[in-house]
């Protein structure tokens, strides 16, 4: 009987990879790229082999080509399955699906073994690639003014790390507000508390260019707003 591992390898070779290329992606094995002049738009296949099955999912990653070149990191292109520290945005595909949480597929023996592959391709087609394109276009046309560089954010991020809160990925000025972006979630009370303190610190600087601090998650969704004390 054909094992799950054998079906998984066959499914990747004969079904998944060709289907991804048909969507406009280039690449092979476990790293695929959506061609673009200014950004690396990447899709990486992530696997967790077990004795009798191989669960898999995808990592999405967006990296400015100029940033990758300037970083001087090894490799011709970023690996979407690795956190390099120069990403404009990265996420597991489940985060951009309607369920909003981690999703894994499994190819199992039986007549219906191809269905998970078809479902995975549909997730990439209808959610993964549109989000990558949207993120790249948004980054190209971004109107916000950079407030602090990654190096200047180190002190703030060190404090967040102490409380096990994800770092500030970007700080920009937009429409009279300081907009902080990070991999936070609305239900994380610790993150909100720590970011409340960070917002008070920013507002106490008395910078006339903003009177509000807004926090967004890595998908650009508004989380919390902290106005200056009246």
Overview of this structure, please?
With 230 residues, the protein is α+β, with helices and mostly antiparallel strands. The chain folds into two domains: 4-140, no CATH class; 145-227, GMP Synthetase, Chain A, domain 3, CATH 3.30.300. The protein contains five helices and ten strands; from the N terminus they run αββββαβαβαββαββ. It has a five-stranded antiparallel beta sheet. A five-stranded mixed beta sheet has the order 6-7-8-9-10, with helices on one face. Strand 7 (168-174) and strand 8 (177-182) form a beta hairpin. It starts with a helix and ends with a strand. The relative contact order is 0.11. The mean pLDDT is 89.
Write a short abstract of this structure.
The protein is α+β, with helices and mostly antiparallel strands and 230 residues long.
Helices, strands, pairings?
Layout: H1 4-22, E1 26-28, E2 31-34, E3 39-47, E4 56-64, H2 65-71, E5 89-92, H3 115-140, E6 145-148, H4 154-162, E7 168-174, E8 177-182, H5 189-203, E9 212-216, E10 222-227
Parallel strand pairs: 8-9
Antiparallel strand pairs: 1-2, 2-3, 3-4, 4-5, 6-7, 7-8, 9-10
Helix pairs in contact: 1-3
């Amino acid at each position: 009987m054909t094992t799950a591992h054998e079906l998984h390898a066959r499914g990747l070779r004969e079904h998944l990879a060709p289907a991804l290329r048909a969507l406009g992606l280039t690449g092979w094995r476990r790293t695929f790229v959506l061609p673009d002049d200014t950004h690396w738009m990447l899709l990486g296949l992530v696997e967790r082999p077990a004795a009798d099955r191989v669960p898999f999912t995808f990592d999405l990653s967006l990296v400015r080509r100029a940033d990758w070149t300037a970083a001087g990191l090894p490799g011709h292109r970023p690996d979407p399955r690795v956190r390099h520290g120069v990403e404009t945005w990265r996420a597991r595909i489940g985060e951009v699906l309607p369920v909003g949480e981690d999703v894994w597929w499994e190819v199992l023996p039986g007549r219906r073994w191809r269905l998970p592959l078809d479902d995975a391709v549909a997730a990439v087609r209808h959610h993964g690639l549109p989000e990558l394109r949207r993120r790249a276009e948004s980054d190209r046309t971004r109107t916000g003014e950079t407030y602090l560089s990654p190096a200047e954010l180190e002190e703030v991020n060190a404090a967040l790390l102490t409380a096990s809160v994800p770092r500030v990925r970007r700080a920009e000025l937009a429409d009279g507000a300081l907009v902080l972006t990070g991999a936070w979630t609305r239900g994380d009370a610790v993150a909100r508390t720590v970011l409340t303190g960070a917002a008070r610190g920013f507002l106490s600087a008395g910078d006339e260019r903003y009177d509000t601090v807004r926090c967004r998650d890595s998908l650009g969704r508004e989380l919390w707003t902290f106005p200056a004390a009246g």
